[in-house]
């Protein structure tokens, strides 16, 4: 049997096996794919759950059932939905970490429009990328299996149909990023399935990166400084409540310099409570103490 024939045979086997557990996800504000990970449990990306109301879950046999999110991790771009899965199979997870160069198949059911299967190679492992709210997600898997819009939330699998990751982010130019199916991901899914939604400290602020911040300060005749510029604020957020203002330049958090969003996220995730921000407001330097509570 030639190489192309073998790929075709394996793709058909993946579609028949794994495809039975891949679902379409549709809400009032978006569409995507998902995967049955347990009885009455479906995993998808958090960014697929835009808009209010129920989640319509379309199964491989065409059945549509209403689901409800149990746990949603927006920063980690994961969500577990409770829905009647009936006899939809739970797929097996790969026992070992994937390496660059491995052949993979991506499976999706974009918004319930029907099963898609494509072939590619792992182009890189251990990648990091930004989640929906800008936090860095580590341990990603990059592959070249092409997928249409609405495929995020579906699995990337090996030739035996074992799950290697959950597709979550399309880079364009034929490259997709997935959350690697490692023990950490399994633990997160179990917690979300119990309704445990992670709580992370946030400022409630929209920020401009250091390079653009320097340009904006220079444009209005202010001294250039490294830091993150506050572009907008949620009035009910911790930052606004502490006295942070639009136009403030955050140059340090918890006593450590802030030149990238990762620096600020690190301080938010592991810094003291309350967190002291060093801020440049115009030409004035001051401190803003942010209390987050429990």
Task: Label this structure with key terms.
294 residues; Thrombin, subunit H; Pdz3 Domain; six-stranded antiparallel beta barrel; 18 strands
Fold and architecture overview:
This protein is α+β, with helices and mostly antiparallel strands. It is built from five helices and 18 strands. The strands form three sheets. The protein has a six-stranded antiparallel beta barrel. Strands 7-8-9-12-11-10 form a six-stranded antiparallel barrel. Strands 13, 14, 15, 16, 17 and 18 form a six-stranded antiparallel beta sheet that branches. The longest helix has 15 residues, at 3-17. The protein is elongated and about 70 Å long. 39% of the residues are buried.
CATH topology term of the largest domain: Thrombin, subunit H
Just name the CATH architecture of the largest domain: Beta Barrel
How are the strands of the largest sheet arranged?
Answer: 1-2-3-6-5-4
The counted number of beta strands is 18
Q: Please give the count of helices.
A: 5
Class inferred from helices and paired strands: alpha+beta
How many angstroms does the end-to-end distance come to? 61 Å
Gross morphology is elongated
- The level of helicity is 10-25%
How many domains in all? Answer: 2
| CATH top-level class of the largest domain | Mainly Beta
* Gyration radius, in Å: 22 Å
Point out poorly predicted stretches.
Answer: none
Q: Give the SSE string.
A: HEEEEEEEEEEEEHEHEHEEHEE
The amount of beta strand, in percent, is 35-45%
pLDDT averaged residue by residue? 91
